[in-house]
Amino acid sequence: MQNKIRIQILATWCGLIFLCIGLVWVLPSGAPTKEMVFKLDQFIDPETCGACHDEIMAQWQNSMHHLSHKDPVYTRVAKFYLQGLTEAGHITEAESCVKCHTPVGYVTGFPKKVSDEFSQIEGIAAQGIQCDYCHVAVDITKMYNNGLVLSPGQGEDAPGIKYGPFDDTEPEFHDAAFSKLHTDSKICGTCHDVKHVAFGTDLETTYTEWENGPYNSPDPEKHVSCQGCHMYQRPGVPATGSTPRPENPGSATPDAKQRPHIFTHYFVGANSGLPQMFSDKEKSAMAVARLRHAAEISLEMEKENTARVVVSNTGAGHSLPTGLADMRQVWIELTLTDKDGNIVYQTGVLDKNNELPENTVIFNTIFGDGKGNPVINIAKAKEILSDTRIPVGKSASRLFALNPAPRRGYTLTARLLYRSMPQKILNQLPGEPLGPLPVVEMAAVRKEF
Ligand code: HEC
Ligand code: HEC
Ligand code: HEC
Ligand code: HEC
Ligand code: HEC
Description:
- By secondary structure, this protein is of the alpha+beta class.
- The chain has two domains: 40-288, no CATH class; 294-448, Sandwich (Immunoglobulin-like).
- Helices cover 25% and strands 20% of the residues.
- The strands form six sheets. Strands 9, 10, 11, 16 and 17 form a five-stranded antiparallel β-sheet that branches. Strands 7-8-15 form a three-stranded antiparallel β-sheet, with no helix packed on it. A three-stranded antiparallel β-sheet has the order 13-12-14, with no helix packed on it.
- Helix 2 (46-52) crosses helix 3 (54-60).
- It is globular and about 75 Å long.
- The chain binds heme C (5 copies).
């Protein structure tokens, strides 16, 4: 009798142990609770990938993904934000940037935080968001703050599987497999939605804006993913919501088979200044092209001295501006000239310090410290005080009181302008002075009286 009970208990224990082993086996290796730890030499240098994928490599070179760590604006803003913080929640946030900006370094142990000595970062860790990071992603744990789960190979001797859009290819150097994740906006969205790590404040919401917008249509004919615009762009083809997005026929390596579309890897958004700092005129021009096909502006007289300016987000797949909407500046400049061409009224003009006057009509977000005071340092952002960005496909309308009222022969011009960052933030950053950043005309309209 006693023996029987003992055997039963033993059997139960054995069963439980097997169940546990089974569970560990079944759970994906990068389950949410586990931090990924890899060795740097597991990841392959982008140069190696570029030996075969030469065109893709040339496109990715000097892209914001390639520069995500070296970007002098980013590194200085990150070091600047960290200065003088005392509250634990502020410090945790200010230290967290490397998870997205230096992702290969982060998953291989250095840097783990912004205060780590950046000059000691080794080899490809400094190469930003690279080939062998995106193409070894196998899953996502959360849709913000970079929830990518990786499965890298063992360096060049055993490159492992590179995941991508093809389901019919067997390259020699590496294994390849189709990945639905890579065809989905989610692979972008997990980094392009940023939440404050301590306070949960929404700092960047590009993915959520897209997710709630018309381009995330259940109808496959109307659905346009991030890739559908940003990985269709190439010189001469801005590929926005208001322009055609033709396929880019070609091959993934010079010898590979012809395919109807090869996804481009320029990853151009709106930033034309950063590529200029790295002497990349092509990507700078592509950012300008994207901005010039993002919005429309119209102008009409409401009363004899009141003008109505309407700005419509016709080309972006998300709000305008998106990303760092607290820094990005999209604003209206209005100029009234008399019959001889003299300026008689003007608003939204940069002053001699390269700053915009207080009363400028600007579309952006402003963060607060939780007590209603505006903050520039996102580490202190506990709330959103105001949000005047223009959602996908929507318009914003603003009234301007003109003084003097336009008369016969006068001309009124409204321009929509963009720059990546205010000069007063650049002026506070440590190191060599930065700027002035380029100001890009997105759209303009004129009315003659
Ligand atoms: C930010 C992530 C990211 C980075 C960095 C990246 N890729 Fe890609 N790549 C993608 C995605 C996503 C696709 C597929 C897009 C789709 O199917 O919608 C893709 C497609 C590809 C393809 C299939 C052919 C094509 O272009 O359609 C190859 C080959 C490729 N990438 C190689 C590379 C190489 C080489 C690098 C580095 C020079 C690189 N990728 C960097 C995300 C990335
Ligand atoms: C979850 C991923 C993620 C984290 C964490 C993150 N960023 Fe970013 N960062 C982004 C993305 C995505 C962009 C591009 C958005 C854009 O261009 O508007 C960006 C762009 C920037 C830029 C603009 C660079 C330029 O050249 O204009 C700065 C500056 C920046 N981040 C600073 C920081 C700092 C400082 C931290 C930490 C406090 C941080 N980021 C943490 C994803 C992240
Ligand atoms: C020796 C040449 C060579 C090298 C080096 C190389 N690839 Fe490839 N890769 C290929 C070929 C060939 C294909 C198949 C192209 C096709 O079928 O159109 C391919 C396909 C791919 C695909 C598509 C896989 C799919 O199923 O969709 C990705 C992603 C990719 N490579 C990424 C990389 C990355 C990342 C590196 C560097 C770590 C790299 N490749 C290095 C030759 C190479
Ligand atoms: C590992 C995180 C990560 C992933 C994954 C990622 N991004 Fe980014 N992306 C960033 C960061 C960080 C920056 C800004 C880098 C810098 O500061 O220079 C950026 C910049 C950009 C920019 C340039 C923004 C500008 O201001 O001009 C575009 C466009 C972009 N990403 C699109 C995409 C698309 C499309 C995908 C998916 C195929 C994607 N990203 C996937 C982190 C990521
Ligand atoms: C319908 C086309 C379209 C789609 C879809 C789209 N974008 Fe964009 N994107 C644009 C245009 C146009 C701009 C330039 C205007 C602007 O800055 O918003 C842009 C700009 C950006 C910028 C730079 C913003 C800034 O001012 O710093 C980032 C980052 C970005 N896109 C990421 C994404 C991501 C991530 C997705 C998917 C969640 C996505 N985009 C989907 C058209 C698109």
